[in-house]
């Protein structure tokens, strides 16, 4: 009996410890899409009409807390969303009622909502400021009556200017933003109340903005005080919110991403910079054979990964010119396909609006109201929106990822240079060329039959709308992928079998 009790205790401990990494994706779904600056009503529509049918698991939304209205620019910049003036749920994306409706509708079709939580700071020094919900603040004197916060709730004014000093990074003002003191129980309580309100409305978790600039022990107090997820939205009892933290760690600084992995997932920025470097041709595809911890990444169970996000696609944050974006579409789609074909980490794809100026806000009318994306006949977007998540090559790779769930990489092949292929168990096969024509007979690991390439097309009413691949009884197939083609990747899986 004593031995059995010990085993049960271990099981309880393991179950509890894994809860903080549970992303609450429904079975058969994967991948979070960041619908950057979308309106709540449009996200609700997108969950129902596209994300659920295509197998997406969740949406990261822009910060839902009221932000300052920036009036000293020629246009309202995207980064005003990252300068809270209160925790009221009124932004250019919509009001509290629209927020509640969005979360409900998305949960109803099995698509989870993850809120971008800006809890490190409030606004910059913007004088007497007004927010998107008409709240006011005397920012110079750190008075935010709509919370309320007063000067004693902030760290003493100083600038983050020494990344070799953890105290400077965590207790000073990032880009001049008023830095909250999370060790203050009143401040922690206000943050907890805000996050618990979102939990009560059905969110599945949080992206923690600027987690690097907060002390892990302070964040632990906040996370440990969060309520269980709301069972009215289909979450099992005792479920904890999924936490993924923005900790930019490319090495050589005082603050390390591993300091935060005991608290939840951490965004692995080394993934983004390295995958961009490889698919831009600055390293060989064959070097990806040990992708993951072999590249110095944190463990995949702790990592949330992407090719680009709203910061680094604009040259901010980390990675610089190596970062791939929609502006380099062929290599970008290849990098996304590799990310979704490979089992490392929890995956997120970016959905952008078009920009030339890195500060530019979302498409808007003359009054600054965000415009809705138009939906074209081929499922792509217009009205100034890029909607990478609606590109065939990307959403079909989400389907690939769903089809190969639970399998590992096997039968890795390369030409020693810029061509690779691999299987995911006996469920999927993918091949890439970043230089030259690939013409080779390769092991696909799939049962014999004819499969539709989900990059060039799809399986539609029993026929392939793009390329087809014939797999023989030994699992091999002749693969042809030419450098002149629009896409440098081919992918087949068990759910795209024609016959």
From TrEMBL:
Keyword Metal-binding set for record: yes
Signal sequence extent: 1-19
MF term (GO), any: alpha-amylase activity
UniProt entry tagged with the keyword Calcium: yes
Keywords noted in UniProt: Calcium, Carbohydrate metabolism, Chloride, Disulfide bond, Glycosidase, Hydrolase, Metal-binding, Signal
Domain Alpha-amylase C-terminal, first and last residues per copy: 410-497
InterPro entries per UniProt: A-amylase/branching_C, A-amylase_C, Alpha_amylase, GH, GH13_cat_dom, Glyco_hydro_b
Domain Glycosyl hydrolase family 13 catalytic positions: 30-401
A matching Pfam family: Alpha-amylase
Catalytic activity: Endohydrolysis of (1->4)-alpha-D-glucosidic linkages in polysaccharides containing three or more (1->4)-alpha-linked D-glucose units
EC number, UniProt record: 3.2.1.1
BP-aspect Gene Ontology terms: carbohydrate metabolic process
Cofactors required: Ca(2+); chloride
CDD domains the record matches: AmyAc_bac_euk_AmyA
Subunit structure: Monomer.
Family label: Belongs to the glycosyl hydrolase 13 family.
Protein name: Alpha-amylase
GN (gene name): LOC108744049
